[in-house]
């Protein structure tokens, strides 16, 4: 039994009528999707394709840029075909993407010079440590809002320039372009070597560790420190404006009118337009963002300061972010590596077969810990094991790990922003797990609400593109589309919550310092 109330069984499904429409391309960590939306923000058609995850060494994660571009073209054409429409019915294309994942390519041939280094890739840990020597991990935090960590794009560019034969000279000669997946998709979509535009938006640029949050431009001092030639960098534009038009495929001639990192797009799609509004997206990892208004808020509690969005030439809106590297991927690990469940959904049945965690706590520091710790030396633990513990208790502890990590982020957010969350808007694949959503509500002692359209990331990019071309008049029109589909309210006793939180924090302590320098 949960306190869930379902208001709709098929969130977002719609019959499409006669349009016009907005097409949203969501280039994610595991797959690329194209979703067609109507004016009410309802889904008309979806096409999706997974791409290969390449693991050349422990801790290294790569994607093939050419495969990703091929998939983006396929799903875009696929979604338009499924919708039964043509490019003439589509008013604009929005782009959203996995952030930080770094690609360098040859501007003349359009060929990537190396696989993309994915945001989860930890090969730049040593480089980050070196960059922070004598200064500490906050060397560039004042300018960029980010701690030195392998997560961000800047150190990944530097690694490629240092490790791909002859690349630095070609980059300095202006032959090489850098992009996160937004830039790569937009450049190809608008013509590639034949006139493609080389741009990124402020939200994606804010994850490179190379953009100054105050000027919203590349920071020359940081570029010099990281030894990155400015010639590789795209032009930074707002999140909602026309960058160019699609050069080919089913959407040839349609304006490309938005770009946002996927977590910022979800903030936009959840219509968190007012200061203090927040959302949390539960997918491979989990990312909780709070709108902090028109000035960046510094974090003293392990969060990131980032750009939330910028609509055309309006003032930018900033956000605080708590990034958790491993949440849904812990469930995948239970399924694929441990073989304890056959499907992600099965974890709910298994975890529901017991009353509690039986004293066990799982801390998934698989590649260190992200927010609020930023510790590259941490590794995963299962703490509190006794012979009493069964796989059902472990399943429960796995779900609780996502809930407690959320609690830690919310606590940090309250300290940094002074805002107490009165409710948390959620989205992403894990939100179909009722037990997890109930547990999150319990540990936060606050309601958790899920909207009708679960694809808030793609919706956010569609909204931004639609605003740019006048498809929607303003953000008030978008707010009117947000409808609640389900809500969970807290049921846990305060003393249980306090005891469990203390145990969780004890288990987190056990993960620290596992990796030593020489490793
Ligand atoms: N019922 C479920 N319970 C727990 N986790 C789930 C469930 N369904 C999916 N997941 C997890 O959610 C993730 C997929 O969510 P999605 O939002 O598609 O992620 P992403 O956009 O990061 O690829 C996977 O890691 C999967 O393990
Ligand atoms: O593609 P996702 O949904 O796993 O999101 C990844 C984030 O953007 C990483 O910062």
TrEMBL record:
Region of interest: Disordered: 1-24
Domain Carbohydrate kinase FGGY N-terminal: 22-269
GO cellular component terms given for this protein: cytosol
Stored InterPro entries: ATPase_NBD, Carb_kinase_FGGY, Carb_kinase_FGGY_CS, FGGY_C, FGGY_N, Glycerol_kin
Keyword field: ATP-binding, Glycerol metabolism, Kinase, Nucleotide-binding, Transferase
Enzyme class: transferase
Reactions this protein catalyses: glycerol + ATP = sn-glycerol 3-phosphate + ADP + H(+)
Binding positions for ADP per the UniProt entry: 29, 33, 284, 328, 429, 433
Means of activity regulation: Inhibited by fructose 1,6-bisphosphate (FBP).
EC number: 2.7.1.30
Binding site for sn-glycerol 3-phosphate: 29, 99-100, 151, 262
Pfam entry (one): FGGY_C
Gene3D superfamilies membership: 3.30.420.40
GO molecular function terms attached to this record: ATP binding; glycerol kinase activity
GO biological process: glycerol catabolic process; glycerol-3-phosphate metabolic process
Pathway: Polyol metabolism; glycerol degradation via glycerol kinase pathway; sn-glycerol 3-phosphate from glycerol: step 1/1
Binding of ATP, residues: 29-31, 284, 328, 332, 429
Record bears the keyword Acetylation: no
Record-listed glycerol binding positions: 99-100, 151, 262-263
Domain (Carbohydrate kinase FGGY C-terminal): residue spans on this chain: 279-468
Role summary: Key enzyme in the regulation of glycerol uptake and metabolism. Catalyzes the phosphorylation of glycerol to yield sn-glycerol 3-phosphate.
Similarity comment: family membership: Belongs to the FGGY kinase family.
Protein name, entry field: Glycerol kinase
């Amino acid at each position: 039994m949960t306190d869930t109330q379902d208001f709709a069984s098929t969130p977002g499904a719609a019959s499409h009528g006669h349009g016009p429409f907005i097409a949203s391309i969501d280039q994610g960590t595991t797959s690329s999707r194209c979703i067609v939306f109507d004016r009410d923000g309802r889904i008309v058609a979806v096409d999706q394709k997974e791409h290969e995850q390449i693991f050349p060494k422990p801790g290294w994660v790569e994607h093939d840029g050419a495969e990703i571009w091929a998939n983006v073209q396929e799903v875009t054409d696929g979604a338009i075909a499924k919708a039964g429409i043509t490019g003439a019915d589509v008013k604009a294309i929005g782009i959203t993407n996995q952030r930080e994942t770094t690609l360098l390519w040859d501007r003349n041939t359009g060929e990537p010079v190396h696989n993309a280094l994915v945001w989860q890739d930890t090969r730049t840990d040593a480089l980050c440590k070196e960059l922070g020597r004598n200064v500490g991990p906050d060397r560039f935090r004042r300018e960029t809002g980010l701690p030195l960590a392998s997560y961000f794009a800047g150190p990944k560019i530097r690694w490629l320039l240092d490790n791909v034969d002859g690349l630095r000279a070609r980059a300095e000669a202006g032959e090489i372009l850098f992009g996160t997946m937004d830039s790569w998709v937009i450049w190809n979509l608008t013509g590639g070597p034949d006139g493609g535009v080389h741009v990124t938006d402020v939200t994606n640029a804010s994850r490179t560790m190379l953009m100054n949050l105050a000027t919203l431009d590349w920071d020359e001092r940081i570029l010099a420190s990281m030894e990155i030639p400015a010639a590789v960098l795209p032009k930074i534009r707002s999140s909602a404006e026309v960058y160019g038009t699609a050069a080919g495929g089913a959407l040839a001639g349609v304006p490309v009118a938005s770009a946002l990192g996927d977590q910022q797009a979800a903030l936009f799609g959840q219509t968190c337009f007012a200061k203090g509004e927040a959302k949390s997206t539960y997918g491979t990892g989990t990312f909780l963002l709070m709108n902090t208004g028109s000035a960046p808020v510094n974090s003293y509690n392990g969060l990131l300061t980032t750009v939330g969005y910028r609509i055309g030439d309006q003032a930018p809106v900033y956000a605080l972010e708590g990034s958790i590297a491993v949440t849904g991927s812990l469930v995948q690990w239970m399924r694929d590596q441990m073989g304890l469940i056959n499907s992600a959904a099965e974890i709910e049945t298994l975890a529901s077969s017991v009353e509690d965690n039986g004293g066990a706590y799982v801390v998934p520091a698989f590649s260190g810990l992200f927010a609020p710790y930023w510790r590259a030396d941490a590794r995963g633990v299962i703490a509190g094991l006794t012979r009493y513990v069964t796989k059902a208790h472990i399943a429960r502890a796995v779900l609780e790990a996502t809930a407690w990590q959320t609690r830690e982020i919310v606590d940090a957010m309250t300290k940094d922003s002074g805002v107490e969350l009165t409710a948390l808007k959620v989205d992403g694949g894990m939100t179909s797990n009722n037990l997890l959503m109930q547990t999150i509500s319990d540990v936060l002692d606050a309601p958790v609400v899920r909207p009708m359209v679960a694809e808030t990331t793609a919706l956010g990019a569609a909204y931004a593109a639609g605003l740019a071309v006048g498809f929607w008049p303003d953000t008030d029109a978008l707010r009117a589309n947000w409808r609640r589909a389900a809500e969970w309210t807290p049921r846990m006793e305060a003393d249980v919550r306090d005891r469990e939180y203390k145990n969780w924090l004890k288990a987190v302590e056990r993960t620290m310092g596992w990796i030593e320098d020489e490793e």
